[in-house]
Amino acid sequence: AIPMITYSEIPDSNIAELVVDGFVSQEDFDEISGRMSALIERHGRIMLLEEIRALGGFNLSIIPDDVRFAFHHLKDISHCAVVGERVWLEWLTRVLDPLLSCEVRYFESAEIAAARAWLRDAPD
Fold first, then answer.
1. For residue range 57-74, what is the model confidence (pLDDT) as tens digits?
2. Distance of alpha carbon 124 from its chain centroid, rounded?
3. From CA 93, how far away is CA 96, in angstroms rounded?
4. Alpha carbon 113 to its chain's center
5. Would you list the DSSP string of 62-107?
6. pLDDT at 94
7. Own/partner pairs, 85-88, CB within 8 angstroms, 24+ separation
8. Considering only CA atoms, which of 29, 111, 118 is closest in space to residue 78?
9. Helix 26-43 crosses helix 62-73 at what angle (to 10 degrees)?
10. Cβ(83)–Cβ(47) below 8 Å
């Protein structure tokens, strides 16, 4: 099966990029959470760019793992850029922002270069 979520790291930085384009499996989640944990180990705090192309759902069994990972590592993420087309993503970003310790900003898909620049230029 083609992975519906891809993970990459920007060389010589503490920036990780996730692209979600459909269904997220337990295997995808386990691999990505392991790689993100290793990046956090190396850098202390990281920044995240999350591009949501399509949400095809996910295996409900990953919710406890996802929540546990998020709460465990929330303090380790300083900035999160959310990139996508949907109005509800912008709404969700605004709702979650005060609850999260990281700074969250929403960008349209066409603004992905601006999202990358925002993370690159952000103070650690």
1. 556 566 566 666 666 677
2. 17
3. 5
4. 16
5. HHHHHHHHHHHHGGGEEEEEEEES-HHHHHHHHHHGGGSSSEEEEE
6. 74
7. 85/109, 86/52
8. 118
9. 10
10. no
Q: 81: Cβ–Cβ under 8 A, 6 or more apart, which residues? A: 47, 48, 49, 50, 104, 105, 107, 115, 116, 118, 119
Q: Which two tokens stand for residue 79?
A: 């900035």
CA dist., res. 97 & res. 15, Å (int): 19
100 or 7, higher pLDDT? 7
Cα(50)–Cα(112) distance, rounded to whole angstroms?
10
| Nearest-5° Cα angle at 46, 44 to 47 | 165
pTM of the model: 0.79
Structural tokens at position 108: 């349209």
Q: What percent of the chain has pLDDT over 90?
A: 33
